[in-house]
Design brief:
The structure holds two protein chains of two kinds.
Chain A: H1 25-37, H2 41-52, H3 55-71, H4 82-102, H5 110-122, H6 130-139, H7 142-151, H8 154-165, H9 170-177, H10 181-205
Helix pairs in contact in A: 2-3, 2-4, 3-4, 4-9, 5-10, 7-10, 8-10, 9-10
Chain B: H1 9-23, H2 29-41, H3 43-62, H4 69-85
Classes of the chains: A mainly alpha, B mainly alpha.
């Protein structure tokens, strides 16, 4: 790790010893890890909640992620996106531990949801109501937004989370999720469309939007 | 899908297809400009985009829970063990 043009890494080199002459390199690593990872704890927890979906499992998942991250921290390149790197580790931890536990068939949500969406799309051509709907969606309680997010398929939910909450580029999301960028795009597309349908439904149920005369 | 009254239904289709890429700043150059120009001329797509912007903002606001204090304490303690055990 002799990135001599980066002053923060000088402690590992021959220069910059000074008062650190006695410092244990493991200790240095742990200190740097703590300084960089602790500020991301809220972010990691919110992400974990989109996977594990209850606070206890989400906390366990964060802890597991931190443990794995420290073991691999030497392979993390300073200056690259640490959040993305951590979410990649979390994704793997989640797949290894929690998905196995659930013993779900692998194609869990992605397939049936498409039919569901196509079915829904037919009853939702609300041109002319859109502007009213934007207002209505803005007025929905947070609990409705969380409920909608929790209701869509896991892969869709995570793609939406990474793009809309974390603001990752599609390329970064592809690396985190271990899929091609095209898959990220279709997950986002489907996820966001489903989210819109659900939120529109909630707004209609709450009488916040004039309903079209659809015979459902 | 969203072509009510627009003089350029192909533009509506194109916008519907690429709206999220546009929103997430994944489009550059001509592709971005094409969507921008359509949005400037089509009120129906404008409304759709406005709705999608609301959804994006609401999701960003609602999905950012703070880590529980217990977890924070657990992680700090865990990192402390990294210092002492691995040497």
């Amino acid at each position: 790790m002799f990135l001599l043009d980066d002053p923060t890494t000088l402690v590992d080199g021959v220069g910059g010893l000074g008062s650190r002459i006695m410092a244990d390199p493991k200790d240095e690593l742990a200190q740097r890890f703590e300084a960089e990872v602790i500020p991301l704890l809220d972010t990691l927890y919110a992400g974990a909640l989109r996977m594990a979906r209850n606070p206890d499992d989400a906390s366990d998942l964060v802890q597991e992620t931190v443990e794995r991250a420290f073991k691999g921290f030497k392979s993390y390149t300073p200056g690259t996106n640490l959040r993305a790197w951590l979410f990649r580790i979390m994704t793997n931890a989640y797949i290894n531990i929690y998905r196995k536990k659930q013993r779900q068939p692998q194609q869990s949500s992605s397939d049936d949801v498409e039919d569901w969406q196509m079915h829904k799309a037919a009853s939702h051509t609300s041109t002319g109501l859109r502007s009213a709907e934007a207002e209505a969606l803005d007025g929905l309680p947070d609990s409705d937004v969380k409920r909608a997010l929790a209701s869509i398929g896991e892969d869709y939910r995570l793609a939406v989370y990474y793009a809309d909450v974390e603001g990752f580029a599609y390329k970064e999301i592809a690396e985190i999720m271990g899929t091609p960028v095209g898959t990220v795009m279709s997950r986002l597309h489907r996820g966001r469309k489903q989210l819109r349908e659900l939120l529109e439904d909630y707004a209609a149920e709450r009488g916040m939007v004039p309903t079209q005369g659809d015979g459902s | 899908m969203n072509t009510g009254g627009c003089a350029d239904p192909h533009g509506c289709e194109d916008t519907d297809k690429h709206l999220y890429e546009y929103q997430h700043h994944e489009l550059t150059g001509e592709a971005r400009q094409r969507i921008e120009e359509h949005l400037n001329s089509c009120t129906s797509c404008q409304d759709l985009y406005r709705e999608e912007e609301v959804i994006r903002r609401r999701v960003a606001q609602c999905a950012c829970e703070a880590a529980p204090e217990q977890l924070r304490a657990r992680v700090v303690a865990l990192i402390a063990t990294f210092r002492t055990t691995s040497g």
